[in-house]
């Protein structure tokens, strides 16, 4: 491997378009290639972002010796085939959230990463924001005592057409895998894996979920109350409540530029910590440094946490009667 970590994008859609400019903010990272199922889409994307190498079809980027890491930005059910093929080809991967739409596929990818000794991480960008890093430091230092409960909501008033991936079962549509993953991952980061998962929600005529409330429970009484919606706008706020105070993450909590510490008996303290670029630079930086160091996981977003979050989402889907449609295992 060269000193520069060379990145390629797979699936140049909406999120890839937002993430691509952030590579410029990361020392040691270079965005060198893009792969699309369509030559025209790959070329247009490459021109827009100044990317040198264009691949038509995903296999071509797996065969490119000039690429070290793939940023996989296809819809979630389509993460499985490209992730497994990439790991088998020795390419490190950063996979958009939701990692997959099933516990089976997520475990399969995690096992493949370990078997091949290749780096893999879910692109849960929230965990790498400076404000969230500080939140975790404050909690570890006892600033709010023992964390007992987490509250978070995230909703958008989605008005896209029936053909959009948000409503499509084959493309992993629904609130859970697009928005629920954020609130569940936030609670899992702070409280670990729950022993109780309760949920109530509504499905769209296509069978994907439109909204739900989720309650998570732990054997010692700790809990989380989470709400997501694809039909109602919600503030997108989070609170972490402890025995000695609470920390507020103002909207939108999944890409915050500040937190507010409410320590018991003290005035609220606002801590402003802006993100770099559009906020994706932090996760790109994490992967770049870990891959350059020859590591195979991120301790901030380990595969065990991704599996734990996926298991909670599977339980939520079960409670509300949604049957996720996982994608194929092979390209
Ligand atoms: N981190 C964040 O803030 C954030 C925000 C939004 C979405 N996401 C995640 O990013 C992923 C992609 O979301 P998006 O909104 O960017 O989706 P999108 O605009 O539909 O783009 C997805 C791309 O994947 C490729 N693709 C491969 N197989 C496909 C298939 N069967 N159907 C449709 N497209 C397919 C397409 O590119 P080609 O055909 O050109 O190869 C398409 O442009 C999802 O997992 C989503 O949850 C993350």
From TrEMBL:
This is Gfo/Idh/MocA family oxidoreductase. Coiled coil: none annotated. Belongs to the Gfo/Idh/MocA family. Keywords: Oxidoreductase. It comes from Pseudonocardia nematodicida. Residues 5-121 form the Gfo/Idh/MocA-like oxidoreductase N-terminal domain. It holds the Pfam family GFO_IDH_MocA. Residues 133-248 form the GFO/IDH/MocA-like oxidoreductase domain.
């Amino acid at each position: 491997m060269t000193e520069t970590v060379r990145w390629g994008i797979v699936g140049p859609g909406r999120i890839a378009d937002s993430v691509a400019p952030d590579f410029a903010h990361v020392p040691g990272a270079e965005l060198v290639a893009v792969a699309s199922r369509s030559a025209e889409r790959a070329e247009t994307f490459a021109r827009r972002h100044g990317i040198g190498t264009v691949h038509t079809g995903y296999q071509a980027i797996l065969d490119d010796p000039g690429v070290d890491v793939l940023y996989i930005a296809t819809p979630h059910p389509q993460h499985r085939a490209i992730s497994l093929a990439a790991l088998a080809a020795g390419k490190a991967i950063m996979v958009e959230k939701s990692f997959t739409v099933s516990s089976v596929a997520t475990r399969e990818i995690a096992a493949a990463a370990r078997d091949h000794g290749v780096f893999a991480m879910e692109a849960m960008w929230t965990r790498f924001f400076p404000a969230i890093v500080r939140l975790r430091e404050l909690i570890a230092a006892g600033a709010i005592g023992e964390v007992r409960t987490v509250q978070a909501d995230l909703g958008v008033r989605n008005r896209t057409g029936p053909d959009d991936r948000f409503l499509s079962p084959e493309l992993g549509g629904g609130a859970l895998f697009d928005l629920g993953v954020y609130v569940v991952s936030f609670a899992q980061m702070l409280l670990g894996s729950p022993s109780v998962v309760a949920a109530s929600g509504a499905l769209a005529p296509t069978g994907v979920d439109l909204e739900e409330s989720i309650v998570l429970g732990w054997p010692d009484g700790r809990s989380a109350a989470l709400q997501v919606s694809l039909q109602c706008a919600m503030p997108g706020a989070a609170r972490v409540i402890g025995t000695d105070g609470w920390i507020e993450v103002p909207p939108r909590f999944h890409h915050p530029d500040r937190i507010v510490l409410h320590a018991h008996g003290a005035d609220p303290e606002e801590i402003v910590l802006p993100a770099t670029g559009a906020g994706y630079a932090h996760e790109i930086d994490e992967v770049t440094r870990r891959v350059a160091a020859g590591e195979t996981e991120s301790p901030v977003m380990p595969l065990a946490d991704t599996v734990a979050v996926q298991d909670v989402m599977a339980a939520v889907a079960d409670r509300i009667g949604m049957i996720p449609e996982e994608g194929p295992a092979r390209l």
